[in-house]
Amino acid sequence: MINSHEIDYKIFGHDIQVLEVELDSNETVIAEAGAMVYMEEGIDFQTKMGDGSNPSQGFLGKLVSAGSRMITGESLFMTHFTHRGYGKSRVAFSAPYPGTILPIDLRQMRNSSLIAQKDAFLAAALGTKLSIHFNQRLGSGFFGGEGFILQRMQGDGLAFVHAGGTVVEKELNNQTLRVDTGCVVAFEEGIDFSVQRAGGLKSMIFGGEGIFLATLRGTGRVWLQSMPVKKLIEALMPHGENTKKEGGMFSSFME
Protein backbone atom coordinates (compact mmCIF):
# COMPACT_ATOMS: atom_id res chain seq x y z
CA MET A 1 0.00 0.00 0.00
CA ILE A 2 1.16 3.55 -0.73
CA ASN A 3 1.01 6.38 1.77
CA SER A 4 -2.31 8.22 1.51
CA HIS A 5 -2.33 11.66 -0.07
CA GLU A 6 -2.77 14.48 2.45
CA ILE A 7 -5.96 16.19 1.34
CA ASP A 8 -7.85 19.11 2.89
CA TYR A 9 -11.64 19.35 2.97
CA LYS A 10 -14.73 21.32 3.94
CA ILE A 11 -18.28 20.06 4.53
CA PHE A 12 -21.16 22.37 3.63
CA GLY A 13 -24.83 22.16 4.62
CA HIS A 14 -26.77 20.41 7.34
CA ASP A 15 -29.42 17.92 6.22
CA ILE A 16 -28.14 17.46 2.65
CA GLN A 17 -24.38 17.94 2.81
CA VAL A 18 -21.66 18.52 0.23
CA LEU A 19 -18.04 17.46 0.73
CA GLU A 20 -15.48 19.75 -0.94
CA VAL A 21 -11.94 18.34 -1.20
CA GLU A 22 -9.00 20.68 -1.85
CA LEU A 23 -6.14 19.13 -3.81
CA ASP A 24 -2.57 20.30 -4.25
CA SER A 25 -0.79 19.56 -7.51
CA ASN A 26 -0.73 15.79 -8.27
CA GLU A 27 -2.91 14.91 -5.28
CA THR A 28 -5.75 12.44 -5.87
CA VAL A 29 -9.04 11.64 -4.19
CA ILE A 30 -11.06 8.52 -5.04
CA ALA A 31 -14.85 8.45 -4.95
CA GLU A 32 -17.89 6.40 -5.79
CA ALA A 33 -18.99 6.72 -9.41
CA GLY A 34 -21.65 9.42 -9.75
CA ALA A 35 -20.87 11.16 -6.44
CA MET A 36 -19.19 14.23 -8.00
CA VAL A 37 -21.09 17.54 -7.81
CA TYR A 38 -18.55 19.98 -9.31
CA MET A 39 -14.83 20.33 -9.96
CA GLU A 40 -12.62 23.32 -10.63
CA GLU A 41 -10.10 23.91 -13.39
CA GLY A 42 -7.09 21.60 -13.40
CA ILE A 43 -8.92 18.54 -12.08
CA ASP A 44 -8.57 15.46 -14.28
CA PHE A 45 -10.76 12.43 -13.61
CA GLN A 46 -10.45 8.84 -14.71
CA THR A 47 -12.65 5.82 -14.08
CA LYS A 48 -10.50 2.94 -12.95
CA MET A 49 -10.87 -0.60 -11.72
CA GLY A 50 -9.85 -0.70 -8.07
CA ASP A 51 -8.92 1.87 -5.42
CA GLY A 52 -5.34 2.50 -6.56
CA SER A 53 -3.87 1.66 -3.14
CA ASN A 54 -1.43 -0.82 -4.71
CA PRO A 55 0.00 0.57 -8.00
CA SER A 56 2.04 -2.59 -8.65
CA GLN A 57 -1.09 -4.75 -8.55
CA GLY A 58 -1.67 -6.55 -11.84
CA PHE A 59 -4.90 -6.76 -13.82
CA LEU A 60 -6.02 -9.95 -12.07
CA GLY A 61 -5.50 -8.39 -8.64
CA LYS A 62 -7.46 -5.31 -9.67
CA LEU A 63 -10.23 -7.53 -11.02
CA VAL A 64 -10.46 -9.43 -7.73
CA SER A 65 -10.50 -6.15 -5.77
CA ALA A 66 -13.19 -4.67 -8.01
CA GLY A 67 -15.17 -7.90 -7.86
CA SER A 68 -15.28 -7.69 -4.07
CA ARG A 69 -16.93 -4.27 -4.44
CA MET A 70 -19.61 -5.83 -6.61
CA ILE A 71 -20.34 -8.32 -3.80
CA THR A 72 -21.08 -5.37 -1.51
CA GLY A 73 -23.44 -3.91 -4.14
CA GLU A 74 -21.09 -1.12 -5.25
CA SER A 75 -19.94 -0.25 -8.76
CA LEU A 76 -17.14 -2.28 -10.37
CA PHE A 77 -15.26 0.96 -11.04
CA MET A 78 -14.16 3.98 -9.00
CA THR A 79 -13.45 7.53 -10.14
CA HIS A 80 -10.00 9.01 -9.44
CA PHE A 81 -9.83 12.82 -9.37
CA THR A 82 -6.30 14.26 -9.71
CA HIS A 83 -5.18 17.89 -9.73
CA ARG A 84 -2.93 18.22 -12.80
CA GLY A 85 -2.44 21.98 -12.61
CA TYR A 86 -0.62 24.34 -10.25
CA GLY A 87 -1.66 25.73 -6.89
CA LYS A 88 -4.84 24.34 -5.38
CA SER A 89 -8.07 23.15 -6.95
CA ARG A 90 -11.28 21.69 -5.52
CA VAL A 91 -13.71 18.88 -6.31
CA ALA A 92 -16.99 18.29 -4.48
CA PHE A 93 -19.13 15.22 -3.75
CA SER A 94 -22.56 14.52 -2.32
CA ALA A 95 -24.21 11.47 -0.80
CA PRO A 96 -27.02 9.66 -2.68
CA TYR A 97 -29.62 10.46 0.02
CA PRO A 98 -30.09 13.10 2.77
CA GLY A 99 -27.96 12.75 5.85
CA THR A 100 -24.51 13.41 7.28
CA ILE A 101 -21.01 13.11 5.82
CA LEU A 102 -18.56 11.82 8.40
CA PRO A 103 -14.79 12.46 8.03
CA ILE A 104 -12.64 9.66 9.45
CA ASP A 105 -8.88 9.91 10.01
CA LEU A 106 -7.87 6.27 9.62
CA ARG A 107 -4.61 6.90 11.50
CA GLN A 108 -6.69 7.35 14.66
CA MET A 109 -8.54 4.07 14.20
CA ARG A 110 -7.46 0.81 15.77
CA ASN A 111 -5.23 -1.00 13.25
CA SER A 112 -5.77 2.01 10.92
CA SER A 113 -8.99 0.31 9.89
CA LEU A 114 -12.72 1.06 9.91
CA ILE A 115 -15.58 -1.42 9.37
CA ALA A 116 -18.67 0.15 7.77
CA GLN A 117 -21.99 -0.85 6.26
CA LYS A 118 -21.57 -1.83 2.63
CA ASP A 119 -22.92 1.39 1.06
CA ALA A 120 -21.39 3.90 3.49
CA PHE A 121 -18.22 4.81 1.55
CA LEU A 122 -18.28 8.17 -0.26
CA ALA A 123 -14.68 9.25 -0.93
CA ALA A 124 -11.12 8.91 0.39
CA ALA A 125 -7.55 10.03 -0.16
CA LEU A 126 -5.65 7.95 -2.71
CA GLY A 127 -3.87 5.19 -0.81
CA THR A 128 -6.93 4.06 1.11
CA LYS A 129 -7.60 0.36 0.61
CA LEU A 130 -11.21 -0.78 0.29
CA SER A 131 -12.07 -4.43 0.85
CA ILE A 132 -14.92 -6.59 2.06
CA HIS A 133 -15.31 -7.74 5.65
CA PHE A 134 -17.32 -10.90 6.31
CA ASN A 135 -19.19 -11.04 9.60
CA GLN A 136 -18.50 -14.53 10.89
CA ARG A 137 -21.85 -14.77 12.64
CA LEU A 138 -24.36 -16.16 10.15
CA GLY A 139 -27.27 -14.75 12.13
CA SER A 140 -26.07 -11.25 11.24
CA GLY A 141 -26.23 -12.20 7.57
CA PHE A 142 -29.71 -13.64 7.62
CA PHE A 143 -31.35 -11.14 9.96
CA GLY A 144 -29.05 -8.14 10.26
CA GLY A 145 -30.62 -5.85 7.70
CA GLU A 146 -27.21 -4.82 6.34
CA GLY A 147 -26.16 -8.45 5.97
CA PHE A 148 -22.97 -10.20 6.96
CA ILE A 149 -20.96 -8.52 4.16
CA LEU A 150 -19.51 -5.26 5.42
CA GLN A 151 -16.83 -2.94 4.04
CA ARG A 152 -13.34 -2.33 5.45
CA MET A 153 -11.34 0.88 4.86
CA GLN A 154 -7.63 0.78 5.67
CA GLY A 155 -4.93 3.42 5.37
CA ASP A 156 -3.14 6.37 6.93
CA GLY A 157 -5.26 9.21 5.59
CA LEU A 158 -8.79 10.58 5.40
CA ALA A 159 -11.87 8.61 4.39
CA PHE A 160 -15.43 9.92 4.22
CA VAL A 161 -18.56 7.90 4.91
CA HIS A 162 -22.17 9.02 4.67
CA ALA A 163 -25.10 8.17 6.90
CA GLY A 164 -28.83 8.85 6.90
CA GLY A 165 -30.13 11.57 9.20
CA THR A 166 -28.06 12.51 12.25
CA VAL A 167 -24.90 10.65 13.27
CA VAL A 168 -24.28 9.71 16.91
CA GLU A 169 -20.82 8.59 18.02
CA LYS A 170 -20.64 6.21 20.99
CA GLU A 171 -17.47 5.02 22.71
CA LEU A 172 -17.70 1.59 24.31
CA ASN A 173 -15.38 0.54 27.13
CA ASN A 174 -15.91 -3.20 27.40
CA GLN A 175 -19.64 -2.46 27.14
CA THR A 176 -22.63 -3.68 25.16
CA LEU A 177 -24.93 -1.58 22.99
CA ARG A 178 -28.13 -2.83 21.32
CA VAL A 179 -29.19 -1.00 18.18
CA ASP A 180 -31.75 -1.22 15.40
CA THR A 181 -29.96 -3.30 12.76
CA GLY A 182 -30.15 -0.65 10.05
CA CYS A 183 -28.79 2.14 12.28
CA VAL A 184 -25.21 0.86 12.47
CA VAL A 185 -22.98 2.96 10.18
CA ALA A 186 -19.45 1.97 11.20
CA PHE A 187 -17.30 0.70 14.05
CA GLU A 188 -13.66 0.16 14.92
CA GLU A 189 -11.97 -3.20 14.72
CA GLY A 190 -12.23 -5.01 18.04
CA ILE A 191 -15.97 -4.42 18.30
CA ASP A 192 -17.97 -7.64 18.11
CA PHE A 193 -21.08 -7.30 15.91
CA SER A 194 -23.94 -9.78 16.14
CA VAL A 195 -27.72 -9.87 15.78
CA GLN A 196 -30.10 -11.16 18.43
CA ARG A 197 -33.85 -11.67 18.71
CA ALA A 198 -35.67 -8.67 20.18
CA GLY A 199 -37.61 -9.77 23.26
CA GLY A 200 -40.50 -12.18 23.32
CA LEU A 201 -43.00 -13.06 20.60
CA LYS A 202 -45.40 -10.24 21.55
CA SER A 203 -42.65 -7.62 21.44
CA MET A 204 -41.44 -8.97 18.11
CA ILE A 205 -44.89 -8.59 16.51
CA PHE A 206 -46.27 -5.45 18.15
CA GLY A 207 -43.20 -3.63 19.51
CA GLY A 208 -42.47 -1.63 16.37
CA GLU A 209 -38.70 -2.06 16.83
CA GLY A 210 -38.34 -4.97 14.43
CA ILE A 211 -37.78 -8.64 15.12
CA PHE A 212 -33.99 -8.47 15.57
CA LEU A 213 -31.53 -6.00 17.10
CA ALA A 214 -27.82 -5.56 16.43
CA THR A 215 -25.57 -6.10 19.44
CA LEU A 216 -22.23 -4.26 19.54
CA ARG A 217 -19.88 -5.43 22.27
CA GLY A 218 -16.29 -4.54 23.19
CA THR A 219 -14.01 -1.50 23.38
CA GLY A 220 -13.88 1.13 20.67
CA ARG A 221 -15.93 3.69 18.80
CA VAL A 222 -19.26 3.09 17.08
CA TRP A 223 -21.14 5.42 14.70
CA LEU A 224 -24.94 5.22 14.42
CA GLN A 225 -27.41 6.86 12.03
CA SER A 226 -30.90 8.08 12.91
CA MET A 227 -32.47 7.49 9.48
CA PRO A 228 -31.23 4.45 7.51
CA VAL A 229 -32.12 4.58 3.83
CA LYS A 230 -34.48 1.61 4.38
CA LYS A 231 -36.56 3.62 6.86
CA LEU A 232 -36.47 6.66 4.56
CA ILE A 233 -37.90 4.63 1.68
CA GLU A 234 -40.60 3.18 3.92
CA ALA A 235 -41.52 6.67 5.18
CA LEU A 236 -41.88 7.93 1.59
CA MET A 237 -44.11 5.02 0.55
CA PRO A 238 -47.88 5.69 0.35
CA HIS A 239 -49.50 5.01 3.73
CA GLY A 240 -51.85 2.46 2.25
CA GLU A 241 -48.96 0.46 0.88
CA ASN A 242 -47.32 0.31 4.31
CA THR A 243 -50.59 -0.71 5.91
CA LYS A 244 -51.17 -3.36 3.29
CA LYS A 245 -47.67 -4.74 3.80
CA GLU A 246 -48.00 -4.85 7.57
CA GLY A 247 -51.47 -6.36 7.33
CA GLY A 248 -50.17 -8.99 4.96
CA MET A 249 -47.37 -9.91 7.35
CA PHE A 250 -49.77 -10.13 10.29
CA SER A 251 -52.31 -12.13 8.29
CA SER A 252 -49.60 -14.55 7.20
CA PHE A 253 -48.49 -14.98 10.79
CA MET A 254 -52.07 -15.61 11.97
CA GLU A 255 -52.55 -18.23 9.28
Description:
The radius of gyration is 20 Å and the shape is globular. It has one domain (8-254): Double-stranded beta-helix. With 255 residues, the protein is of the alpha+beta class. Strands 9, 11, 12, 14, 15, 16 and 17 form a 7-stranded antiparallel β-sheet that branches. A 6-stranded antiparallel β-sheet has the order 5-6-3-10-13-8. The protein has a 4-stranded antiparallel β-sheet with strand order 1-2-7-4, with no helix packed on it. It has 5 helices and 17 strands.
Short description:
The chain is α+β, with helices and mostly antiparallel strands and 255 residues long. 19% of the residues lie in helices and 45% in strands. The strands form three sheets. Strands 9, 11, 12, 14, 15, 16 and 17 form a seven-stranded antiparallel beta sheet that branches. The chain has a six-stranded antiparallel beta sheet with strand order 5-6-3-10-13-8.
Major sheet characteristics: 7 strands, antiparallel
Shape category: globular
Q: Please name the CATH architecture.
A: 4-Layer Sandwich
**Proportion of β residues?**
over 45%
Characteristics:
255 residues, alpha+beta, Double-stranded beta-helix, 6-stranded antiparallel sheet, 5 helices, disordered C terminus
Topology:
Blueprint: E1 8-12, E2 18-24, E3 28-32, E4 36-39, E5 43-49, H1 59-71, E6 77-83, E7 88-94, E8 99-105, E9 113-116, E10 121-125, E11 129-134, H2 138-143, E12 149-154, E13 158-164, E14 167-180, E15 184-188, E16 192-197, H3 201-206, E17 212-225, H4 229-236, H5 239-254
